[in-house]
Amino acid sequence: MRAAALLSEDLAAAEDLGLWVDVVGTLTRLGRSALADDDTGRAERLYRRALEIAAERSFTRGQVRAETGLGRTAPLRGDRDGARAHLGRAVERGRALGLADEAAALLAEAAAGREGAASRTSVTASNI
Fold first, then answer.
1. In angstroms, what is the C-alpha Rg of the chain?
2. What region, left, alpha or beta, does residue 39 occupy, with left being phi > 0 and alpha being psi -120 to 50 degrees?
3. Which of 58, 74, 112, 127 is spaced 20 to 30 Å from 65 by Cα?
4. Which domain holds residue 43?
């Protein structure tokens, strides 16, 4: 919880300074922290906000990270189709930047019906 509080302070500072790349990065890290705490509702809100900001600023790397985070969150909320959609978009956007590997692996797991286990167990090792 202390790490999340520190990240929240970083988020506020980045927003005040208009450092949108940092805002998106911090939001995705907070989303990962929320998933680690089994707070899928909070994780989804954080990843959606990161995606919105990244899309507004054409920040593709941020969009890939946010979509991947939403792809991890969706099956934990019972939305397998949503997981596949988010991960598919992450793969599509990430290929050009060499960022599609993690999303592609999660998408393959989702296709095999194993997304819940993959989302929970690998969230802390993720670089989202």
1. 14
2. beta
3. 112
4. 2-121
- Please report whether residue 127 resides in a domain: no
What the block records as the tokens of 108 is 């393959």
Q: pTM, whole model, 2 decimals?
A: 0.80
Question: CATH code at 56?
Answer: 1.25.40.10
Residues 21, 108: Cα–Cα separation, whole Å: 29
What digits encode the pLDDT tens for the residues 59-101?
999 999 999 999 999 999 999 999 999 999 998 888 888 877 7
**Domain membership flag for residue 128:** no
Does residue 14 belong to any structural domain of this protein? Answer: yes
Burial of 7 (0-12, 13-18, 19+ CB in 10 A): middle
